[in-house]
Amino acid sequence: MGAVGRDGAVLLIGETGAVGPVASQLRGAGASVRVLTPGHGGGGLPDGVEPASGDLAAPESLGDCLKGVEAVYLDWPYDRRAGRFHAAGAAAGVVGMIVRNVRRLVFVSSHAPGDAPERPADPTTAFYARLGRLIRGSGLEWTALRPCMRAGVTRQWAPQIRAGDVVRGPYAASARSLIDERDVAAVAARVLTGAGHAGASYVLTGPESLTHAEQVRAIGEAIGRPLRYEEVAPDLVREALSLVWPPELADAVLAALAARVSAPEPVTTDVEEVTGSPPRTFREWAVDHADAFR
What we know:
CATH superfamily of the domain at 9-151 and 180-205 and 266-279: NAD(P)-binding Rossmann-like Domain
Number of strands: 13
Number of helices: 11
Strand content: 15-25%
Distance between the termini: 45 Å
CATH class of the domain at 9-151 and 180-205 and 266-279: Alpha Beta
Helix content: 25-40%
């Protein structure tokens, strides 16, 4: 794999919040960048980025945005309100269109160990397993990025923090190695524009595993207020989640949180090995995004 993005474009496919930081990193490296953000247009993207049109649900519509593209970054968009991936049933068609037009694909996959089981335990893992099988059998030069949960997920606590000093949720001792979105983007940009990553699968984490309670305290320190996490019974949380998510997804999320009480999410060195720099801490992320909680 040689460097790309100067003679041909790099196409980024995904939600604006996920691909925007990657676009910024690539533009900073001098790459030509095109972005397809299904259903959201081109708003909020860095200067110099070319918005693309197409619909993942209609793979043949991707032909124009794939013209002149050397590499694709695919972070399949997820509708959190609906609890499902956008146009998941079209995955085979989308991969087929990429195969016909592009030589290299960097894709985001599940952080869960073993993302290609025969019978995945939840719909998210099932989708990533299917997507991974399609890509690995496609003949493309592929690289898989398997980030843990992005630090930005903690923005879900912002309404509670603005209203008081207590965040309520399940499993206070559940520990995750949250990663700064900018570190995921840095790895993606390095892999897309560098050599030696074909067939690699990188597990991307932050530098430490923090419990829900520790994450909330870190946000409190960042905004200058003492905050605490108050544990809520999982059954109550399941009931609330099931109002907006499929029940099997709510069950899978809660089961994963419960498992991380006794088995905290591990930390890897893949970010530093790829980029040459250690990943940012969650506390650094909280300081940089303090206004989101004020």
